[in-house]
Amino acid sequence: MTTAHGDNACIKNASTLHQTFMKFLSHLLLLLAAAPLCPAQNISFTLATPQPALIEVYSGSSASGDIDGDGDNDLLLVGLDPGRQTALYLNDGFGGFTEMTTPFPDASSSVTRFVDLDGDGDLDLFFSGLGSGVQEFAHIYVNDGQGSFTLLPNPALPQFQGTGVAIGDVDGDGDPDLLLAVRDQNDTFVADVFLNDGSAMFTAAGSTGFTPVEFGAVVFLDAEGDGDLDAIIAGTDQNGDPSTLLYLNDGGGIFAPDTVNIFVPLNANDVDVADTDGDGDLDILMSGTTDPFAVRTILYLNNGDGLFTELTATGLQDTFGGTNVMADLDNDGDPDLVIIGSQ
After folding, report:
1. CA distance from start to end of the chain
2. 312 pLDDT band (50/70/90 cuts)?
3. CATH number at 7-51+153-342
């Protein structure tokens, strides 16, 4: 099996709502994530009027967070329409958004995450993607606390597009690190931890235990309940085959493949975690395609010790190339589920 490396390939493996609506015949289900699972009732959303004047993009990403410290969430949008665009909007607290001037590149096939990378209490930005001139990049922007960002060069980071990024404190030193599973601008597969020194400078850990993939998902979770971040890495491996594996953390940021659980290998996937059955541990939801081709959405229940069992007859719609979101939408104490994707 061969794969393309560029906008079209990343669009096929879209991970954002904008990608899904614009590039796929979307299918949306709102389901209560409880046992037994059933369609949600009495949850309604109303289209805001007037609509804010935001760019309309696909094949990109979005991020929200309070970047200027005024107590409301601001918004970053990145993607194609039809050229590459990036726009940062400040929220006035009443749902009105004003576009700001930024140093960010116009991009597509992107990952954008607001997180405090340098420990100063405000939200910085991790931003990777495909820029103008078909140039791949991975940038760290530090925030001055007022919503003004400055590029902080990080020569250790590979330059890439794609979705295989997770951010969290893997070594227990109190700052967020990076786990990347991507193919970089030199067509080299990279699967490694990048450790943060506390000032948003990252160093490759030289991890050797990961199976490299592209066009996939990387998600942190405490699978075993031992207090550290384990990882799920799913995507297309170097042979073009689907791969979905759990990696266990020793607490110091060193990962080893789990030898107990066997997950269905998935391409074009999305992976999310939440306590769907209310027993205090994190379960795993995956969507994607198998080889030979079949479309799957699978929920795995955790027994609390890191042993996962596939839950059958969930009623969940099988989708791929989209995104799943789990959150308590009806305030009843359990996570509900939005599934968006192609069938």
Report:
1. 21
2. very high
3. 2.120.10
